[in-house]
Amino acid sequence: MKVSPSLLSANFADLAPALEMINSSEADYLHLDVMDGVFVPNISFGFPVIKAVSKVCTKPLDVHLMIVQPQNWISQVRDCGAEFMCFHLEACTHIHRTVQAIRQAGMKPGISICPATPVSLLEDIIEDVDQVLVMSVNPGFGGQKFIDSSVKKVRQLREMIDSSASSAIIEVDGGVNEQTGSILAEAGADMVVAGNFVFTAPDPLVAIRSLRAL
After folding, report:
1. For 110-139, how does the pLDDT look when each residue is reduced to its tens digit (9 = 90+)?
2. Percent helix, percent strand, percent coil in the chain, to nearest 5
3. What pTM was computed for the model?
4. Catalytic positions, please?
5. pLDDT value at position 140?
6. Residue 193, CB half-sphere, CA atoms under 13 Å: how many?
7. 3-class DSSP assignment, residue 86
8. Among residues 146, 194, 177, 190, which one has the least CA distance to residue 31?
9. What is the dihedral sign for C-alpha 160, 162, 168, 174?
């Protein structure tokens, strides 16, 4: 299992130790949640922070935009050095155009769905994206309880991808720990986002390693 620790759960007053830990860990990516207070009921951090982080972090950046009109910010995400730019299906009208623009900007396009959004809505876009991010909590806050029905969605998505020409990876974000991560791995997830599980662990390096072993 690939692991993308979420910086949202780190100590914002001093990010340097968190980034040093990520750099020395077995993490595959660093997950960055951008919230606008409109699409989700919270505001996190913006592009100046991501750009500063990118100069220190040696892991590829996995940027998740929980914002309205994500198509307006493609160049800013690119300029921050992101590998993945993931936006919400529910926040964008012209999905294919946005996916194409992300790829043209040199990034891997990802699309995310909230817990109440059915997997079937991804059918017409699944072959055009490199990543599908299944939210297993309602987006906007860290530390929420895992929504069990997310496992069924991962299975449905695995079947959709495997029966198509898609090479998209399945990422899951929300309430991930060793127990839920193991269930998600069995269901067909390729990567998990972990915030509290990693950053509140007695040893974050061990926590990351335990998820990668799933």
Report:
1. 999 999 999 999 999 999 999 999 999 998
2. 40, 20, 40
3. 0.96
4. 33, 173
5. 80
6. 33
7. strand
8. 194
9. positive
CB 86 within 8 A of CB 112: yes
Question: Is residue 170 within 8 Å of residue 150, measured between CB atoms?
Answer: no
Sheet containing strand 108-113, strands side by side = 2-5, 191-194, 169-173, 131-135, 108-113, 82-88, 61-66, 30-35
What are phi and psi for residue 110, nearest 5 degrees?
-125, 155
**Lookup: tokens for 103:** 């790829």
3-state secondary structure of 104: helix
- Indicate the length of the chain as a whole number: 214
In this structure, how many other beta carbons lie within 10 angstroms of the beta carbon of residue 106? 10
Q: Tokens at residue 156, please? A: 């449905």
